Amino acid sequence: MTTGDELLLLAIVPGRRRIRIRSQDRLRYVLRTSELADLCLAGRISVGRRRIEVLDTRPVEDRRLSGVLHSLGAAAPPPGLKDWLRRTPRSLTVEYLSRLEDQKAVRVRRWRDSSGRTRNEILSVDLPRRRALLTRLDSVVRSGSARPTADLTLAVLAQAACLAPAAYPGLRGITDRRRMAALAATHRLAPATAGAVPVADEELAAALTTGADVLTRQLLGEFSDLYADFTTGGHGLGHDLDSGSWSEGGAGGTGHHGDGHSGW
After folding, report:
1. Which of 39, 46, 96, 190 can pair with 200 through a Cys bridge, CB separation 3.0 to 4.6 Å?
2. Which DSSP symbol is given to 258?
3. Structure pTM?
C-alpha cells in the first residue's frame, strides 16, 4: 500500500447502517500530498518552499506514483506545493477507492444516478487490515516520538486530513487524538527533535500543514460546487463518490472504469 491507500483506509469508518469516508472536504488534497511524500521518501523529489524539484526520473514500483513523477518532471516551470494542491482532481478519492478495491481491502457497488453521474457505495471494508494499520499508527502516536519515517509521515498526513476522530473515535480516543495532534505539531515545527527526519520531509510536513489549512479556508468556496453533490440530503461521501475526471496518476489505474461507468 502507498501512503495514500493507507490514508483512505483510515478514513473509511464502518457504521451500523452504512460505511462512510471521513473528512471529505480535505481528504483528496492530502491524498495528493501523500503522493509527494512517498516520492520524497523514495528519493525521487524534494519539496522546497518555492517549488517541487524532481531529483531522479526513474520510475518507482507503484505505477500511479510513477505517473505523478512523470507529470512533475514534465511541468514547466516546476510547480510549488500550493499550486500542485490547487490542481487536485475531484476524482482522486474515487481513484484511490478503486485501488483499495483492487487490493481487496473494500467492496464497492457502483451505479448511475438520474443525472448520469456514477455513484460509489462502499459495501464492506477489510477490518483486520484496517486494525493492523491502526496498530502501526499507535506505535508512533503513543510512543510520542518519530520511529519509522513512513509511519510518522502517515500520522502527520492523517492529522492534516482531520482523520484523528476516525482513528480514535469517541471519548476513549480523546487522549490519543491529543497525542496525534502534538506529534504532528512537533514534527512540523521541530522535526530534528522528533527523530531527525530528512530535510525534504521536514519541508513537506511544514508546507503540507500550512498548505492544507490555507486551501481549506481560502479555496473551499471556490470548490464548493464540487462538494455540493457529496453533501446534498445528508449523504456521506462513502455513498456518493463521483468519478469526475481522472488525474495524471491514472496511468496505474484499475480495470473498474472501462464499462461505461467512469468519468472519461
Report:
1. 46
2. S
3. 0.73
Q: Decide if 21 contacts 8 (C-beta within 8 A).
A: yes
How many Å apart are CA 183 and CA 139, to the nearest integer? 12
Q: At what angle do helices 3-11 and 27-41 cross, to 10 degrees?
A: 150
Query: Is the CA virtual torsion 96, 99, 101, 106 positive or negative?
Result: negative
Distance of CA 260 to the CA centre of its chain: 26
> Greatest CA separation found in the chain?
54
DSSP 4: H
- Cβ–Cβ < 8 Å for 152, 141: no
Residue pLDDT, tens place only, 10-56: 999 987 788 989 887 778 888 998 898 889 888 898 877 778 889 99
- Alpha-carbon distance 203 to 17, whole Å? 41
- Alpha-carbon span 56 to 197, nearest angstrom: 20
Q: What residues form DSSP beta bridges with 119?
A: 111
